[in-house]
Every structure is written in structure tokens, then in C-alpha cells.
Amino acid sequence: MQDLMNKNLFLFQNSTKGILRIYNIQTDKSLLLKSNDIVKDIQSIRFKLDLGIFEQKTLQDEYESIGLELFCLEPFKIQEKDEALDLLLEASIKELSDKRITFYKD
């Protein structure tokens, strides 16, 4: 529990770069996005989903039909100092693909 609190505190105190995951618990689908500020982007995505203006239409439609409770918006991977976000995104997609997680398509 303390580790989770420390991670959250770190995220809120810093402009943390990495990969965000929007995960539909009901359908087991994910959307991975690059982020230059994870906390800010999570807030922005949540705001767009609530307003019904999120860019990924299938995800937006599912969000509207099943509600917030079945979605998880979370940091998936935190960027290391010299790590490229594009490579981190590719590695994250491969990791979830290997676990047979499906993705939202544009």
C-alpha cells in the first residue's frame, strides 16, 4: 500500500512521461497512449470521455453505454531517463499482445 502511495505522490509532484492505458474491464480491451505528462493527460482524457468528445469513437461509445466504473485510466509504463516514448509504446503493445489483450483501433 505504501508503494502505491509513493508512486502516486511521485506522479503528482512531477511531470512524468510514459505510457497511459485506458482499460475496459468488461471487454478486456485496451488503448495505449504516449504521454508527456501522465497526470495531466489522465485528467484530460477523463474530461473528454465525460463530455463525449474523446477521439477514439469505439471506446467513447462503450464508455457512454457501460459507464466509468468499468474503465480504468492508469499509468502503464513510466519513461526511464533516456528512453524513447515511441519505443516504450511499441514494447508496451507487444507486452499486452503477448497476453492476448485486444486493442481499440482508430
Structural class: alpha+beta
Q: Unreliable stretches, pLDDT < 50, 5 or more residues?
A: none
Shape: globular
- Rg estimate, integer Å: 14 Å
Give the strand content: 15-25%
Order of helices and strands: HEEHHEHE
Would you report the number of β strands? 4
How would a textbook summarize the main sheet? 4 strands, mixed
Gap between N and C termini: 36 Å
Query: What is the count of DSSP helices, taking H or I runs of 4+ residues?
Result: 4
Q: Kindly report the average pLDDT value.
A: 90
Cross-sheet strand order for the largest sheet? 3-1-2-4
Helix proportion? 40-55%
Q: What does this protein structure show overall?
A:
The chain has 106 residues and is of the alpha+beta class. It is 47% helix and 23% strand. It has helices spanning 2-13, 38-51, 57-66, 85-98, and strands spanning 18-24, 29-35, 71-78, 102-103. The chain has a four-stranded mixed beta sheet, sandwiched between helices. The model has no long low-confidence stretch (mean pLDDT 90).
Topology:
Elements: H1 2-13, E1 18-24, E2 29-35, H2 38-51, H3 57-66, E3 71-78, H4 85-98, E4 102-103
Task: Give the tags.
23% strand; 4-stranded mixed β-sheet; 106 residues; 4 helices; alpha+beta
Q: How do you describe this structure in short?
A:
The protein has 106 residues and is α+β, with helices and mostly antiparallel strands. The chain has four helices and four strands.
